[in-house]
Amino acid sequence: MAEAVVSLVLESVREFTIQEAKFLSGVSHQVEVAQNELQLMQGFLKDADARQGQDETVRIWVAKIRDAAYDLEDVIQTYGLKVVSKKKRGLKNVLKRFACIFKEGVHLHQIGAEIENITTKISALRSSLQSYNIKEIRDSSGGESSLQLHERLRRSYSHVVERDVVGLESNVEDLVMHLLKDENRHPVVSIWGMGGLGKTTLARKFYHHKKVRQHFHSFAWVCVSQRFQVRNVWEGILIELISPTKEKRQEVKDMTDVEIAKELFRVLQKMKCLVILDDIWRIETWNLLKAAFPDVETESTILLTTRNQAVASLAKRNAYPLQPLNEMESWELFEKKAIHARAEIDLGMYEILGRNMLQHCKGLPLAIIVLAGVLARKNSIREWERVSKNVHEYISRGIKHEEEYEGVSRVLALSYDDLPYYLKPCFLYLGHYPEDSEFLVSELTKLWVAEGLISLGQQRHGSRETIEDIARDYLSELVERCLVQEGRSGSTRTIKSCRIHDLVRDMCLLKAKDESFLQMNYSLQENTSSMAAEATQLGKIRRLAIYLDKNANMLVSSRNETNSHVRSLLFFGLIEWIPKSEKGLLSPLKDFKVLRVLKVEDLWTRRVELPSEIGNMVHLRFLSVRRSKIKTFPPSLGSLVCLQTLDFRVPAYINIVIPNVIMKMKQLRHLYLPRNYRAKGKLKLSTLGHLQTLHNLSSEYCDLKDVGRLTNLRKLKIRVLGSLQNLEEILKSTGSTLNRIRSLIVKNDTNSGEEQAMQIVSSYRGIYKLKLDGPITELPKELHNYPNLTKLVLWSCGLKEDQMGILEKLPNLTTLRLGYKTFRKNTKILVFSKGGFPSLEFLHVYGMSQITEWRVEEGAMPRLCRLNITYCSGLTTLPDGLRYLTNLRKLTIRGMRRELHRRIEEDGEDFYKIQHVPSLVIGEPDDF
């Protein structure tokens, strides 16, 4: 991953020197020489990265390069930011400014010497390239040379048929039935999914199926390696299809590439052929091969297997995604591999241990086979218990055990090895999230940006996309490559949350450790000891994820020499952690001089001070104290001139005074203010030209005119705290900015602010998402003309009953949440009329205890796919009209009356209304 680090550092330094060129003039020559050295090194890093897994010497060399690049970036930016800060304090005279810097010990000569020292290290490392036999590689395909042996081990063959196959039978029959019908003839079909799911096994079963053998006349199977030769692939397919004589085989070998492509094209068009292209990784691979495959109507079929969704999409609608095995299928496969041969024994404890261990496999067939292979030769309960204690190690690494079973991590690591350099650090960053957790995409992209992992060089020329847009593209690519799994989707079809398979996470952590990318500490006892053991690792620790437990007595140990180069500090488990003392709890944070990311969320068991010294952490780009009991907002935060994300959403009962320093944070992109805060005068925000998110803008303590100057603003939450003077005039003057807002939340905290709240909503006509919280009895009559509105959330509004007529007419609304007191107290009946909500796909009705009757007329909500009904204590029966919702795929019911729960049981009188829904999630009833 040194290639990624060096490339990102070069871009970071280049961007910084352009922005702050006049403040780096004293060391500009040294900076330029250092950049040149790194640029000269770049071409060799692809080969070095590919070889470090097999050569310890190269691995050490790569680690030194990584550290040198990081150190260079730290030195240049630390020096530059200090000079800039002096200028901003009003020291206009250059000599006077540098004199002040000398007094503080930041001597210009020292900085220059430090940069030269790092440059000398890089130069020496470059000089040693020849002795390590590291070659310069400029093309994108050369880095795979180290995979040659592994590719041979992983190569698939058509004649090797697995004996024990579980969970794929229905997939095979579906493929056979679908593809052999004349009306379903498709030239290209794909099977895709993450490594280890059984794509090759499914393709092989299809290849040998009796009906398939009767249907096609000729067959060819090719495993496409990552270092494939186009001609070799074409020639191999052609020879398999035509079964040539010795003379004809020589004739094929004598053909030019163009001739062989034409001949293969002719054979596929003339004959009824099945060609399996196993393990295609990239679209480019298909683009190189497709010239020999007919794209017109033909009786031949090309079947691809791939880990990449983008490759699978080449087959358009003819892509078959594979899913993990369920619990029953997992046990069946495990039993065949690990227990079948010893059928005479009493399963008893073996089954208990086996089922417990299977939970770690998460339905991945490869993991089940690896585990079963290890246990097949373990003949005692004691041996099974020993494996159970270290089950992750056995599954992931597959080392020092049965040699024929390769570790899952090594197989999954092929997907990592195939990533372009810019995606590798983004993937490794996912390792810090806890096991089985689902993480928000909006937070992840902000962290990537703050860490400098997103390359602006990926921005399309002339595009207006933001760096966050590029980050989302990166995430989408990781999803397509089956390294990340989609969680929830938003109303505009964007991915809202993600997760990674536990076994992919294991592989991720192994890679992160090998690359010295991330260190995990699972209690504070490790916090000192593991850092002290840093010398045993390759490279300095740059990122720390600390999982605190009840034994910890502080967040981090102070005065640790490791702290000086940590860039990312993320804490987990704070919600359950009770510190022994709040005094100085956060003080050690000041030792982290180059920290870019600080995430101290959910620290709510004690009220603590954020130290004023935090203002010295000038590199900080991401700071979140969300849901933590922070007492004050230190004025020194105004010194954090690089800050991009500030999340100060502390608990609502804490009322904080916000000093007027936010205006100094001119790089802010996302600002989340507390729910309750005060300020002396109006907070000035007009200087925040990069701001995209502004949360909890107070009408009392902020000037709404400033919003008009925030030309990049996309998400806005306004709190209406009283009567606003000249609001209509202010809204008119900020019209051009208002049209750019995509997500709007209006919280009316007063009974007198309803009119102002509606004026605000009426001014934001381009919004996609709208949430109204607080007294608003009437919706804007023109709401149905908002062209983009797809999501609407209503809470505590007290709407008049006739407002349902406005809601039903929203033409593009796909998501609707009706919450607590959405309608007035005297509203007892909820009616969804025929033809209402034509585009609605998701409806959540929750906390509406006053509703005693709900009617859904036939023809209402024709596209509804998901319905959640929770804590509506007044309902004793479900609407009869639910039976008309033929597209409903999932119904969730929680916290309802016992009477209702009884009626919807399989033998209940209301079950007929919901029996057509494939997925029913019925929670425990609430006791009313």
Automatic annotation (TrEMBL):
Keywords: Nucleotide-binding, Plant defense, Repeat. Residues 433-507 form the Disease resistance protein winged helix domain. Residues 580-898 form the Disease resistance R13L4/SHOC-2-like LRR domain. Pfam families: LRR_14, NB-ARC, Rx_N, WHD_DRP. One of its GO terms (biological process) is defense response. Residues 169-343 form the NB-ARC domain. The keyword Magnesium does not apply. GO terms for molecular function: ADP binding. Residues 5-90 form the Disease resistance N-terminal domain. This is AAA+ ATPase domain-containing protein.
